[in-house]
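Quiz preparation item.
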């Protein structure tokens, strides 16, 4: 992948980065989970709490995997120094990639809802989407930060899957108030509203830290 510095080419380049195959494949994770559920329960419409559980489990993982490459694509393609030498605002890349990650999150939600409408005739969208958004936003933001720090898509994806699986296995016994799936597997000692609020707050914090890391790295590149 090469980089043309003209504004039109930069827009095209950012679109290729955000909506490439690597990013779009994970958006099909919710339909895949839905197909498995349909096969497991043939001819049966699962109750709404089960559909909500599938959405809460799958959306954070899918959104995180879609964003795993966004902050390190230049380093992996070996033209980070070239991009760093281009006169652009330090916050441009993290803001564009964060916006791109959120667009992928919305796309994942829409594809997931469409699949649930087709498979299960879902009509109560809010009940399945709203509980899944805070953990999805948190993991997406965390993935952007980790990707920026490690410079590796595969390391970032492996850490994401490991964290997701750990949360599923432990059911919040370790993370408690920060448990990702508190709607599906509620903890008696944890306030659900506090849990969702903290996940959203940490997501915003990770986005800010991601931007800070990018600004510091660009400042060092400029000095060198």
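Solution:
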């Amino acid at each position: 992948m090469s980089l043309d510095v003209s504004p039109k080419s930069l827009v095209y380049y950012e679109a290729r980065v955000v909506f490439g195959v690597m990013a779009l494949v994970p958006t099909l994770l919710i339909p895949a989970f839905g197909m498995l559920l349909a096969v497991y329960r043939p001819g049966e419409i699962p109750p709404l709490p089960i559909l909500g559980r599938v959405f809460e489990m799958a959306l954070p993982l899918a959104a995180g995997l879609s964003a795993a490459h966004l902050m390190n694509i230049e380093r992996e393609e070996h033209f980070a120094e070239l991009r760093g030498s281009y006169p652009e605002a330090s916050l441009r890349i993290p803001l564009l990639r964060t916006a791109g990650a959120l667009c992928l999150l919305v796309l994942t939600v829409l594809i997931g809802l469409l699949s649930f409408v087709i498979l299960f005739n879902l009509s109560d969208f809010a009940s399945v989407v709203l509980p899944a958004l805070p953990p999805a936003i948190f993991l997406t933001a965390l993935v952007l930060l980790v990707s920026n720090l490690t410079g590796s898509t595969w390391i970032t994806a492996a850490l994401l899957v490991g964290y997701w699986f750990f949360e599923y296995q432990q059911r919040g016994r370790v993370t408690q108030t920060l448990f990702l799936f508190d709607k599906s597997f509620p903890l008696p000692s944890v306030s659900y509203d506090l849990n969702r609020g903290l996940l959203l707050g940490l997501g915003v914090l990770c986005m800010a830290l991601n931007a800070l890391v990018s600004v510091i790295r660009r400042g060092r590149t400029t000095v060198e």
